[in-house]
């Protein structure tokens, strides 16, 4: 579903991704974890070309994302992206935030888009917030609206860049529950997260990054109980004993 091959990326003289290769099979959930500055957010942003790459190739569902011949706007309609900050339009209602892209990009009828939006919002526990404006919602509710907005495009892949990092602790659970539900439904996902318990419970594989490189890839049971590299061992000691 997602194939990343020998990807390199620099910001000036700073090499932020070094020879990154990773395979994400269909319906798998992959967690990208590691210290700040490891390149996790940069990597996830290259998957839908929010960041260009210097070399290598990224293929999503058979489409080479960074090929100059690729219609990236069309390719992105199959790749949902949820940011740390919710990026909702403050002047639009929740319903309009969720329906704007299906209507404008996918040319769905207003009626069709609204029907799907209400279904999604209801499934995410926001059925009573359809006509509210983002400023009236909690952070957790806004992030769930952002998830509904991404899902309204019926993507085949969902990318989450630290979706709970801007939230108060009590709001984290409701967002993780929404992602958990998607995992149970078989959505292919890559999640940058600091929530170790969540990664352990929900993900098929843990990808540990440090200094722009993939240091270790393992199933959660293996990674959290017996990390093979000293760098991963030190990281887990620091975050799990915090």
From TrEMBL:
CDD domains: ABC_HisP_GlnQ. The keyword Flavoprotein does not apply. One of its GO terms (molecular function) is ATP binding. Residues 2-236 form the ABC transporter domain. Keywords: ATP-binding, Nucleotide-binding, Transport. Pfam families: ABC_tran. Belongs to the ABC transporter superfamily. This is Amino acid ABC transporter ATP-binding protein. It comes from Kurthia gibsonii. The lineage of its organism: Bacteria, Bacillati, Bacillota, Bacilli, Bacillales.
């Amino acid at each position: 579903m997602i194939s990343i091959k020998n990807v390199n990326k620099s910001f000036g003289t700073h090499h932020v991704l070094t020879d990154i290769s990773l395979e994400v099979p269909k319906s798998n959930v992959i967690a990208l974890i590691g210290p700040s500055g490891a390149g996790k957010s940069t990597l996830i942003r290259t998957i839908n070309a929010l960041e260009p790459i210097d070399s290598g190739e990224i293929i999503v569902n058979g489409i080479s994302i960074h090929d100059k011949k690729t219609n990236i706007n069309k390719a992105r309609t199959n790749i949902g992206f949820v940011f740390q900050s919710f990026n909702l339009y403050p002047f639009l209602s929740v319903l309009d935030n969720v329906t704007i892209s299906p209507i404008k990009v996918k040319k769905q009828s207003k009626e069709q888009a609204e029907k799907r939006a209400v279904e999604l919002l209801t499934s995410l526990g926001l059925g009573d917030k359809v006509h509210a404006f983002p400023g009236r919602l909690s952070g957790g509710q806004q992030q769930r609206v952002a998830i509904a907005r991404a899902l309204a495009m019926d993507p085949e892949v969902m990318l989450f860049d630290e979706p709970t990092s801007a939230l108060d602790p009590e709001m984290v659970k409701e967002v993780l529950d929404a992602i958990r539900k998607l995992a149970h439904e078989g959505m292919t996902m890559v999640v940058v997260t600091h929530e170790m318990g969540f990664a352990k419970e929900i993900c098929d594989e843990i990808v540990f990054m440090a200094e722009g490189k993939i240091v270790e890839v393992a199933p959660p049971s293996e990674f959290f109980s017996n990390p093979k590299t000293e760098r991963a061992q030190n990281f887990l000691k620091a975050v799990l004993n915090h």
